[in-house]
Amino acid sequence: GQLDEALRIRQQEELPVYERLGDVRSKAVTMGQIADILQSRGQLDEALSTQENVLKICEQLNDTQGLLVTKTKIAMLLMEFKPPYRSRRLEANQLLCEALHAAQQMRIPEAEQIADILRGYGMGCLEQD
Known about the structure:
This protein is mostly helical. The chain has helices spanning 3-21, 24-40, 44-61, 64-78, 86-106, 110-120. It has six helices and no strands. The radius of gyration is 15 Å and the shape is globular. The chain starts with a helix and ends in a 9-residue tail after the last helix.
């Protein structure tokens, strides 16, 4: 419930430690938490920018699970923007389908959660070979 304090701690205390240590994975996790706080505060542009940076780190680390979680978070964030522009909806659909495919390949429970999110938004994916 104390979002301002949580944001301050993450940004001013945690992130600098991980940056000094060179702990890229922990930095990405903390940035994801910062994005969640920003999203809760309604700062959607800042949250999206932060999640996109997390996505880049996950790509650099070749972190498949981190990628699918971050893509899902970005997609859900895109759907919060008002008005819901068609381009954002299409991007969200693509990200969710990519995340779903990765989760299915990994055979992890998140696959069903992502499928539920797609259904909840009235979206679907083309079958992949």
